[in-house]
């Protein structure tokens, strides 16, 4: 049986080993806590921050893409629809007006139709208000030029907005590529390590470190518990308890002999835990720059996004509204500027100009048509046909009807006198003796030259002109 001195030596050795193990265990636990903090708090926190910023950037980029597309769409629609209205409505109306004006230049007005300007041949175009027409066409040209400048400037701003967006989008894409290549993998490893997703990566260093540290922590606690138990037993044995049997002392002796190897095991666990902390720090040092880089780039992109939306986008929208107003400004706008209610309901200048052009086209088309189809025919009727009809009626009245009436009256009077005249005293007025109606002289106007050579020649010219225009 071991002596009391040997047992006390065992106890002292167990105490020294336990104290050394406790020191190593304390260091190891500190390292375990630090590793756990790094792997389960610091890294996830940074990952969550980066992921959140990436999510914000993605959402902002998506919204911005929609805004830029909307800007391109509304600007293109505004300029294209306005130009389409000009091309479809106003330009054809102007061409039609110019065409009928050109036709007026080809229609002659003979000198005999304008007595005050004899010796001069005119055309229908000489009776057009050219100064007003030229002013109208000049105003339309200015309006078109102004609208073209507005459209070009607006589309140039759209192009500039697009260029700025593509530049910012390129930076965003670069950040997302960096995130996908450097950060997304870490996030997957982290999710697998904390159990948020089933492990797929065979070599997941984070999962390995956490599992190994948990195992080492349990093993360290087990060994420390064993050493504590051994020390307690040695303390009891050192009290020389006669109840301690020889077999138990034999076990204590064997355990005491194992203390160096147990201490080495604790030191090995300590070293592994310390190495794991170093690996965790190295992993953080390796991945943190990429995380910080993505975070910084997201922050910079966020500043660019705010500046772009608050300055460029807003400025463009204000410009868009101003351009819409400029499209509605023309030489016709002055008529409605004072009446805001009317101005708010007024038509587009394109429509107003088109309506004016259509009205002028209708007027001059009617002018040409009336001249060719109505005026000359009516002129011939009034100058030649009607005077002859009038003269014929007058001749028939004077030389036929009136003469017949006069002869009939004279015959009636003679018959009456023959029948009753002898019974009338001579002092009486005899019927029909004085102041009997008779035509002494006929005064007329516009009938003297009805059949003169000059009239016949003028009529021939007019009929020739009518025939020519109807051909």
Automatic annotation (TrEMBL):
Keywords associated with the record: Autophagy, Cytoplasm, Membrane
Organism in which the protein naturally occurs: Australozyma saopauloensis
Subcellular location: Cytoplasm; Preautophagosomal structure membrane
Cellular component per GO, a single term: phagophore assembly site membrane
GO BP annotations, alphabetical order: autophagosome assembly; autophagy of mitochondrion; piecemeal microautophagy of the nucleus
Keyword Membrane: yes
Job of this protein: Autophagy-specific protein that functions in response to autophagy-inducing signals as a scaffold to recruit other ATG proteins to organize preautophagosomal structure (PAS) formation. Modulates the timing and magnitude of the autophagy response, such as the size of the sequestering vesicles. Plays particularly a role in pexophagy and nucleophagy.
Protein name (record): Autophagy-related protein 17
Organism taxonomic ancestry: Eukaryota, Fungi, Dikarya, Ascomycota, Saccharomycotina
């Amino acid at each position: 049986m071991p002596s009391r001195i040997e047992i006390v030596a065992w106890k002292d050795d167990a105490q020294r080993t336990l104290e050394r193990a406790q020191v190593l265990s304390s260091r190891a636990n500190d390292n375990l806590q630090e590793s756990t903090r790094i792997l389960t708090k610091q890294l996830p926190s940074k990952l969550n921050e980066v992921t959140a910023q990436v999510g914000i950037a993605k959402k902002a980029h998506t919204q911005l893409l929609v805004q830029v597309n909307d800007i391109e769409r509304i600007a293109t629609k505004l300029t294209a629809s306005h130009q389409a209205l000009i091309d479809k409505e106003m330009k054809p109306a102007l061409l039609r007006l110019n065409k009928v004006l050109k036709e007026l230049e080809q229609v002659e007005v003979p000198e005999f139709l304008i007595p005050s300007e004899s010796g001069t041949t005119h055309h229908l175009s000489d009776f057009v208000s050219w100064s007003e027409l030229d002013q109208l066409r000049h105003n339309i040209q200015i309006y078109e030029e102004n609208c073209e400048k507005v459209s070009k400037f607006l589309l140039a701003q759209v192009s500039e907005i697009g260029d700025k967006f593509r530049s910012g989008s390129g930076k965003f894409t670069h950040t997302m590529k960096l995130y996908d290549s450097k950060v997304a993998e870490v996030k997957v490893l982290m999710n697998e390590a904390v159990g948020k997703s089933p492990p797929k990566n065979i070599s997941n260093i984070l999962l390995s470190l956490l599992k190994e540290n948990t195992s080492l922590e349990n093993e360290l606690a087990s060994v420390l518990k064993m050493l504590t138990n051994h020390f307690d037993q040695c303390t009891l044995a050192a009290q020389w308890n006669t109840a301690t049997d020889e077999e138990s002392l034999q076990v204590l002796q064997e355990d005491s002999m194992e203390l160096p190897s147990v201490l080495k095991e604790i030191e090995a666990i300590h070293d592994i835990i310390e190495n794991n902390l170093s690996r965790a720090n190295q992993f953080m040092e390796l991945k943190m720059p990429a995380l910080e880089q993505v975070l910084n780039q997201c922050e910079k992109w966020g500043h660019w996004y705010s500046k772009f939306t608050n300055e460029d986008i807003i400025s463009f929208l204000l410009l868009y509204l101003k351009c819409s107003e400029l499209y509605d400004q023309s030489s016709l706008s002055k008529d409605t500027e004072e009446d805001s209610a009317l101005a708010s309901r007024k038509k587009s200048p394109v429509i107003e100009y088109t309506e004016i052009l259509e009205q002028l086209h209708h007027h001059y088309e009617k002018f040409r048509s009336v001249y060719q189809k109505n005026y000359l025919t009516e002129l011939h009727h009034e100058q030649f046909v009607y005077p002859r009809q009038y003269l014929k009626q007058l001749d028939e009245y004077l030389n036929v009807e009136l003469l017949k009436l006069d002869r009939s009256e004279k015959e009636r009077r003679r018959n009456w006198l023959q029948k009753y005249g002898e019974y009338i005293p001579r002092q009486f007025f005899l019927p029909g003796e004085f102041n009997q109606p008779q035509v002494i002289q006929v005064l007329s106007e516009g009938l003297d030259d009805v059949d003169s050579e000059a009239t016949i020649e003028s009529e021939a010219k007019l009929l020739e002109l009518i025939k020519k225009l109807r051909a």
